[in-house]
Design brief:
With 224 residues, this protein is an alpha+beta fold. Helices cover 35% and strands 26% of the residues.
Length: 224
């Protein structure tokens, strides 16, 4: 089964606007830029992540914000790998440390500012987005530009599904073989596949927007 991810991302752009950059000969190299008014645009792209001697394809989305101070945050689902790094530098969090178990249960949270992170997680829209996107992760960190710029990135954790588990990004229409199908039948399948993909992408980008708004809602505490 080879999902035409570029095609679905391009169709998403046709419905939601923005600018799509992709190669029609590849199923996994597209970029989408979405305008956000006066805020920094959103960038969505397919990427390959290398860890040790292995690699995996991932879906990422990113934007940039300005913060009055250095801030790092990483929220991700607990896993065998994640459990091994919980105590790194003592920056460990979870539902007992930050509250809001409906959003933080089953996650590892690392940050350089627990007090500010509690404020960030106080945003209802962010908590709702986290509760709905249990497999996705959020990262906030400084950017190369000087003057307080930070990147906010979300990564989709279940685009391909898991062992013994289906992916919410893929429905039967997306998985169908369209090689010898006539154009009308193929378009009907693409439309059905797009409805599934677009629903997931809306939620995925909703998490990014909620993280952006939650991080920029409050002034950062001053350090001495």
């Amino acid at each position: 089964m080879a999902i035409e991810w570029n095609r679905y991302l391009a169709r998403y752009q046709q419905e939601r606007g923005g600018y799509f950059f992709g190669n029609g000969d590849s199923c996994w190299d597209g970029y989408l830029v979405l305008a956000e008014g006066e805020k920094t645009p959103l960038l969505v792209w397919f990427d390959t992540e290398f860890t040790g001697g292995s690699s995996r394809d991932v879906l990422r989305a990113r934007t940039m914000v300005w913060l009055d101070g250095e801030y790092t945050l990483h929220i991700r689902a607990k896993s065998v790998v994640g459990a091994g790094v919980q105590n790194v530098m003592g920056l460990v969090g979870g539902d007992m440390e930050f509250g809001y178990p409906e959003a933080t249960r089953g996650r590892i949270i690392t940050t350089n500012s627990p007090a500010f992170t509690k404020l960030v997680l106080g945003d209802l829209a962010l908590r709702n987005a986290l509760a709905m996107r249990e497999k996705d992760s959020i990262q906030v960190g400084e950017a190369p530009q000087s003057g307080g710029w930070h990147r906010i990135e979300v990564n989709a954790g279940d685009v391909f599904g898991t062992i013994g588990g289906a992916s919410p990004w893929i429905n039967e229409a997306m998985a169908a073989d369209t090689l010898y199908m006539d154009p009308e039948d193929k378009e009907a399948l693409l439309q059905a596949g797009s409805r599934c993909f677009n629903t997931q992408m809306d939620g995925f980008l909703g998490l990014l927007r909620a993280a952006r708004d939650g991080v920029t809602m409050w002034p950062m505490p001053k350090t001495t």
